[in-house]
């Protein structure tokens, strides 16, 4: 018998796989599945960004290898974004690296700073790469239940006190995927002071910096004086400009940490295709009305989701940011757990959502709903769910009580 590879053995079965298989099987039978599961933006990339890509790709010299850390013009554009949006000054040469999406940046930062057995503090629930980037790199994880207040900071202190060896870093993620919770600058200030005292690196995920609602733009942890001494922050163009397939993101912050990431990347890739980088610079420096337009579309969808699902009998807490709602499972179905409930929604309501347990054990009891369908489709999902909820727990799929965790 061939043993499974060491790093693969450290990765648990993909929680979403069973739900995805059921979704694919339903579609194969002809079911019209309203997919509110994967956070895959459905809006078009703004026209001026696409036109810049087309213009650049026609130049044969741009078809050669690019720069692993990002072309200079793109890094300067990201520096301008941080200066204009957050009032944070960054050196494009030493404090900015362009990444193949924020996910790749996070994973390669883990490779750069993690020795076997190193402990990293990660919120739970959270986006999977925050945890598994370090697990793949040979690290160990200490979970702290996700929150945006004093409880999380005290959790960091307990994690440091009770972990051997002492943790090297902590992950912050606001606005959060999946919970959509945001952080204040006061919270970041306390977090920076605490992490400096405890000797921790801060790795901040700010991928949803521009997808916020009700006029409340999220801050950057780098706005805190002295935060750059210990912090790297990751951003992405995927959600801001509807460019998920373009795979364009950034890591910015502490010069030593950015240098370590750049060195690892220099062995692994030659950077994104140059025309994509040029188009990304055009996104950052060009007209920004498109960002506000998309923000308004998502806010309108959020409002439709909250209202129509409430009318269907399922209360959805309105998210303050991101393209996700983090929603408690209706009480009659809680004992099923998030995976079985998600499967049931596909079978009985033709609606796909993401089970909360896919984002960590503290995600149990919740599902993540992505607002990546138009308002008509969201209302249709609500109508389907209303019929499903009206049936109660009768006629549920072939889940035996023992399997569902019911005794």
The largest sheet has its strands arranged as 2-8-7-6-5-3-4
CATH fold category name of the largest domain = Aspartate Aminotransferase, domain 2
The rough form would be described as: globular
CATH class descriptor of the largest domain = Alpha Beta
Count of beta strands: 12
Q: How many distinct domains?
A: 2
Average pLDDT, all residues: 93
Distance between the amino and carboxyl termini:
38 Å
Determine the CATH superfamily of the largest domain. Answer: Type I PLP-dependent aspartate aminotransferase-like (Major domain)
Helical fraction: 40-55%
Beta-strand residue percentage? 5-15%
Uncertain parts: 398-407
Query: Radius of gyration, Cα only, in angstroms?
Result: 22 Å
- Main sheet, how many strands, which sense, barrel? 7 strands, mixed
The number of helices is 13
Q: Can you name the CATH architecture of the largest domain?
A: 3-Layer(aba) Sandwich
Helix/strand order, N-terminal first? HHEHHEHEHEHEHEEEHHHEHEEEH
